[in-house]
Amino acid sequence: MTVIPLNEGRQPRLQPRTHEILLEDLTLDADIGFHDFEIGTPQRLLATVHVRLDMAHWPQSDTQEASWNYDVLRTHVKRLVEGRRFNLQETLAQEIFDMIAAEPGVIGLTVTLRKPDVYPDAKAVGVILSSD
User: Fold this and answer.
1) Residue 1: its pLDDT value, please?
2) Which of 24, 71, 112, 119 is the most exposed place for a label (fewest CB within 10 A)?
């Protein structure tokens, strides 16, 4: 059997059409909710952020300087929640969305927030904001 090297000397037929950064199911402890039993009692939230970038902001080299810093994204989301109170997931999701949308190179964005501990017969309740 002859083994032909994959793509030797040929240009790829497929090229990426989207360039995305993903932060999935970041656990946040948030003072959130409008019911009396929720106020002042932090609840677990799971935040997922899909950031779509233009090519100018996608790494062109394999260096730290060229990359989007996941630590910065994570830290900014966590700081937004710390020491603040929110009545609605919708409000917090919008604030996360607005903060990330203002970053250079962002051309699309989806923010998902979920409360996984609300109902025993449901995995989670939440909201999704998307620019698409």
Assistant:
1) 65
2) 71
Residue 59, amino acid:
P
Look-up of token digits 């959130």: 32
> What is the residue whose two structure tokens read 């003072």?
31
Q: In whole angstroms, what is the distance from residue 79 CA to residue 28 CA?
A: 10
Q: Which residues, in sequence order, are CB contacts of 91 under 8 Å at separation 6+?
A: none
Write down the pLDDT at residue 6. Answer: 64
Three-state DSSP string of 32-100: ECCCCCCCCCCEEEEEEEEEEECHHHCCCCCCHHHCCCHHHHHHHHHHHHCCCEECCHHHHHHHHHHHH
pLDDT in tens, 14-58: 877 778 899 999 999 988 778 777 777 888 999 999 999 988 877
